Amino acid sequence: MAKYDQYFLMKPEDVIEYVKDQLDVFGPDADLECKEIGDGNLNYVFRVWDRKSSASVIVKQSGDTARISDEFKVSIDRNRIEAEALMLEDRLAPGLVPKVYKYDPVMNCTVMDDLSDHQIMRGALIKHEKFPLFADHITTFMVNTLLLTSDVVMDHKEKKDLARRFGSPDLCEITEDLVYTEPFNDYKGRNIVFPPNKEWVEREIYGDQELLLEVSKLKFDFMTRGQALIHGDLHTGSIFVRPDSTKVIDPEFAYYGPMGYDTGNVVANLFFAWANADATIADPAERADYIQWLEKTIVDVVDLFKAKFVKAWDEHATEVLARTPGFREWYLDTVLDDTAAVTGLELSRRILGIAKVKDITSIADEALRLRAERICLTAAKEYIKKRTQFRTGADFVAAFRRAMAQFPR
């Protein structure tokens, strides 16, 4: 149809026409309805469903500016990156991402599975729900998508070619600014600091030169070390869950970078859920029970990742020098170093930067929110500065508990 021969930003009525014209998912007599459901920082997300049946799809389209702020001019090619990443992840970790039905390079949109029978994990954790299979699912996803796209396993030429396909300077710049730079000095004046915490942040974060030095090292490592194809934004807002299912979405930040960027994001966002539960669950027994589940989940995410990583290495490594005694252990230690560092970076940027998380902002009591923020930021400093000391899930939990002890109720 000529209407879709040139790019334009669609409205719900356009999406209905688009789906009818471009797909065969729905029958010829389908009675379609469409609603814009996106609440993310970058894209427009539409749900299309047939009133006469259970059939439905998601249509995700990229605009040329970020929804979070017009200051961020981002290439609409990110939709291609996301679609290709999802298709690759589906091959490497089947069942853990939505199925892609169509990628349209003209309209810069992707049509994929509707996951309405799942819920966004961040919201579910804020409601203090439990997902007993999550740690197992997410560690399988991370090991399969990270190790199997690295030089340890892939033909080096094929890996370099893949790295060329996945790389958006615009989106990398967003990560470099919002994760690795601005939370620690606010040099662009975009940070949004909770007013009661302003003086503490200026002293404990902006004024900590040792912290800034370590963050500087980490930023340059992120920019220059293309270890594996990372998801690039693997937080609990990018994960759909049911008690029996986990689906990772939104890999538009997919990029060849340090593996620990993904693992650290997952761990950090589970700590945000912990901070929320600690602040908002009034009943002490209920609060202790939920935090115990989160603690176990964090421990399992780290420890299962390690165990599966070693097993996958032994089964799939093709690089001859990767079989050198001691090399696998050294390599895994570097991933754990980065996991700890990124846990600290994510805890910091979501509290100090422009992109907040509801786990923290939804804490209504000002004193409890202040306490939650300081716990997260204090733990973050330890994860970053002492990142080589975190080797087990218990190590991560112990640091968070040390931070909590500094700010008693």
UniProtKB/TrEMBL annotation:
<dbReference type="InterPro" id="IPR009212">
    <property type="entry name" value="Methylthioribose_kinase"/>
</dbReference>
<keyword id="KW-0547">Nucleotide-binding</keyword>
<protein>
    <recommendedName>
        <fullName>S-methyl-5-thioribose kinase</fullName>
        <ecNumber>2.7.1.100</ecNumber>
    </recommendedName>
</protein>
<dbReference type="GO" id="GO:0046522">
    <property type="term" value="F:S-methyl-5-thioribose kinase activity"/>
</dbReference>
<keyword id="KW-0418">Kinase</keyword>
<comment type="similarity">
    <text>Belongs to the methylthioribose kinase family.</text>
</comment>
<keyword id="KW-0067">ATP-binding</keyword>
<dbReference type="InterPro" id="IPR002575">
    <property type="entry name" value="Aminoglycoside_PTrfase"/>
</dbReference>
<dbReference type="Pfam" id="PF01636">
    <property type="entry name" value="APH"/>
</dbReference>
<feature type="domain" description="Aminoglycoside phosphotransferase">
    <location>
        <begin position="227"/>
        <end position="276"/>
    </location>
</feature>
<keyword id="KW-0808">Transferase</keyword>
<comment type="subunit">
    <text>Homodimer.</text>
</comment>
<dbReference type="InterPro" id="IPR011009">
    <property type="entry name" value="Kinase-like_dom_sf"/>
</dbReference>
